[in-house]
């Protein structure tokens, strides 16, 4: 039997059952976000390459770049965060004093396809822009935990950390990127490249992190059940500046991640010409679908 054309590696069709599952998931998450004041937004799939380049560290090599008929360098969006930063820089009037948005969209990365991650996949982002107040971090964490429970992730736990702890210890960006791989390559390999991790193991919560934990506990969330402080959580992207999050399916530190995010107080300022703090989170929808199927 003759077959039709195939799709490129890492790209594929989404079958009806999965489409319906996605729709149900979105319908469960959206009411949680709108309760916390997040509004919907959509940005284009293609940006000018210069908008995206220089924002992702060593992962920049994964960006799909192309040239149009006019010779302009374009790129498929790598995530939904940098396009949000570009949008906010062009619409500063929305900050009164903050702008909270959510977005569902396709993103593209020229990486090796793996379980739950193709080269084209769906992200579900939500962010608060315009405030450095730790209460905005608290709001994001509450929305993460509540939405995770709403889609059936009863045992999921949010790992949190503060990259300012790494800065105080004098760790370089390269060392932080290596620490971010500790679940994949193990502590011994990390120590070979970074040095002994004693100082990190002995580190205490930053003031911001301590305030966040205190407010979460007041709100009824439990450390060790809903969230946990992971001193080795680093998140590899260059634009994170402070609080960082990673949602795991269970309490196993090396367990499968289904979402991540954090505070990025300098990224939007690269476009806006003045400091504009922000904090957010992104679900990996494709991985979630595989796990909940």
Model description:
There is one protein chain. This protein is α+β, with helices and mostly antiparallel strands. It has one domain (16-292): BirA Bifunctional Protein, domain 2 (2-Layer Sandwich), CATH 3.30.930. The protein is built from twelve helices and eleven strands. The protein has helices at 16-35, 49-52, 81-90, 134-150, 164-168, 173-179, 182-185, 187-194, 198-201, 207-218, 267-272, 285-292, and strands at 39-40, 46-48, 65-67, 73-76, 99-108, 120-129, 157-162, 227-229, 243-248, 257-263, 278-284. The strands form two sheets. It has an eight-stranded mixed sheet. Helix 1 runs antiparallel to helix 4 and helix 4 packs across helix 10. The longest helix is centred in the N-terminal third of the chain and has 20 residues, at 16-35. It is globular, with a radius of gyration of 19 Å. The mean pLDDT is 91.
Provide tags for this entry.
alpha+beta; 8-stranded mixed sheet; 293 residues; BirA Bifunctional Protein, domain 2; 3-stranded antiparallel sheet
């Amino acid at each position: 039997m003759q077959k039709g054309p195939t799709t490129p590696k890492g790209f594929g069709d989404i079958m009806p059952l999965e489409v319906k599952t996605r729709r149900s998931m979105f319908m469960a998450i959206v009411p949680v976000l709108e309760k916390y004041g997040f509004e919907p937004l959509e940005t284009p799939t293609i940006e000018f390459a210069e908008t995206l380049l220089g924002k992702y560290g060593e992962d920049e090599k994964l960006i799909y770049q192309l040239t149009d008929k006019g010779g302009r360098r374009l790129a498929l969006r790598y995530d939904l965060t940098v396009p949000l930063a570009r949008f906010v820089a062009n619409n500063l009037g929305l900050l009164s004093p903050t702008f909270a948005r959510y977005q569902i969209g396709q993103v593209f990365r020229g990486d090796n396809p793996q379980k739950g991650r193709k080269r084209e996949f769906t992200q579900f982002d939500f962010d608060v822009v315009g405030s450095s107040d730790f209460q905005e971090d608290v709001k994001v964490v509450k929305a993460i935990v509540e939405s995770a429970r709403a889609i059936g992730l009863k045992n999921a736990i949010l790992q949190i950390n503060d990259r300012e702890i790494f800065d105080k210890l004098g760790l370089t960006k390269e060392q932080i990127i290596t620490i971010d791989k500790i679940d994949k390559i193990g502590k011994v390999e990390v120590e070979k490249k970074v040095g002994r991790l004693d100082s990190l193991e002995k580190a205490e919560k930053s003031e911001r992190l301590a305030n966040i934990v205190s407010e979460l506990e007041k709100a009824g969330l439990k450390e060790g059940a809903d969230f946990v402080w992971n001193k080795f959580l680093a998140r590899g992207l260059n634009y994170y500046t402070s609080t960082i999050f990673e949602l795991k399916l269970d309490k196993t530190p090396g367990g499968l991640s289904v979402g991540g995010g954090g505070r990025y107080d300098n990224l939007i300022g690269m476009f806006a010409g003045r400091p504009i703090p922000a904090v957010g989170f992104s679900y990996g929808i494709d991985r979630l679908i595989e796990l909940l199927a």
